[in-house]
Every structure is written in structure tokens, then in C-alpha cells.
Amino acid sequence: MVAYLVLLFAVFSRFLPHIFSTTAIGFTAVGGGLLYFGARRSRWQTIIAVLALMGADYYLTVFAYGYAFHTSAYLITWVWYAAICLLGHQMLSGKPSALRVAGGVMASATSFFILSNFAVWMGSFMYPHTVAGLSACYIAAIPFYANDVISTAITAGALFGLPALASSVVETMREAQGNHIA
């Protein structure tokens, strides 16, 4: 159940800039939420996460941005959603370590940065289709990459770290109680 609440929060986080009428909010719980959902649900349930985020993409494109919706513009993003869920399942199922969570965070943010900006470069006329144009596209996206790394680290850190911290505190309290009785 918690994984579904996390998924809803991830989807909701996509709407935050529009709710507050600002694009200054550089936070999204998508990467961390997908890692967590993938780690806590079976692989086949990845489709649920992808469908939820596809719905958000459609709504934002058509209603928030006022653009025509073209499925081809989102295929790479949708494949990425599934890949991050599956990465979470593979890397973080069971009892994840801090190193695995950090690896998942960096893999999530970096893969999105590489794929999404390559797609922007390929599919638009904003940047010339040259090495210099591709470089300019990636350089312009660095602030977004930084926001994604931070957002994903906060989300995944909280989702995986807080339960581990709570478990550690409970174990310490049990040990202290056992020592007090003896």
C-alpha cells in the first residue's frame, strides 16, 4: 500500500509547479518514487506506475501547457519510467544498502539527463544537429540535472532511509531495555 501512496506522491509532484504557478520549484519525486515502487512491488506492476505517469504527461501537455499531444514525443520517457522501476526492483528489493540507494539515485538522474536531452536535441530545432548543438543542449540542462539529482536523493533517501533508521532505533531501544532488565 505504501508503494502506491509513494507513486501518487510522485505523480502529484509533477503538478506542483502548476499548482503554485511557478517553474521555480525544481523538485520532482518521480525518480525516487519509481525506484521505491519498483523495489516494493512486483515487476509486472511496473505497468501501473508507467500508466499513472503517462496520464500525468498527457494532462500536463494538453491542459497545463496547451500543446497537442504526440505519443512519439514521450516514448523515451515512458521507457525510462519502466526502466527505473525495474532498476529499483533489481537493485533495491529486500534490504537495500545506502550504497545501492545512492547508485540507484545517480543511475536514475543521469539516465534521464542523457536520454531526455538527447531526445530534445534530436526532435527539435532549438539546437543545431551538430556536436556543438548536442553539447549546448546538455550544457543548458545542467541546472535541471542538479535539481533531479537532489530531488531523487531526497525522495529515495527518505523512502529507504527512514524505515532503516526507525528499525535501528527500535533495535537500540530493545537492546537498552534488555540491558536494563538484566
What does this structure look like?
It holds the Pfam family DUF6580. This is Lysoplasmalogenase. Keywords: Membrane, Transmembrane, Transmembrane helix. The protein has helices at 2-19, 30-40, 46-64, 75-92, 98-123, 131-140, 142-181. The protein has 182 residues and is mainly alpha-helical. It has a single domain, classed as Arp2/3 complex 21 kDa subunit ARPC3 (Orthogonal Bundle).
Keywords:
7 helices, 182 residues, mainly alpha, Arp2/3 complex 21 kDa subunit ARPC3, elongated
Rg from C-alpha positions? Answer: 19 Å
- Give the beta-strand count: 0
What is the structural class?
mainly alpha
Just name the CATH architecture. Answer: Orthogonal Bundle
Strand residues, percent: under 5%
| Low-pLDDT segments | none
H/E topology pattern: HHHHHHH
Give a short account of the largest sheet: none
Keywords: Membrane, Transmembrane, Transmembrane helix
Protein name: Lysoplasmalogenase
Transmembrane segments: 15-39, 73-92, 99-120, 126-146
InterPro entries: DUF6580
Quick recap:
It comes from Edaphobacter paludis. This protein is mostly helical and 182 residues long.
Helix/strand layout:
Elements: H1 2-19, H2 30-40, H3 46-64, H4 75-92, H5 98-123, H6 131-140, H7 142-181
Helix pairs in contact: 1-2, 1-3, 2-4, 2-7, 3-4, 4-5, 5-6, 5-7
Pfam families: DUF6580
Keywords: Membrane, Transmembrane, Transmembrane helix
Transmembrane segments: 15-39, 73-92, 99-120, 126-146
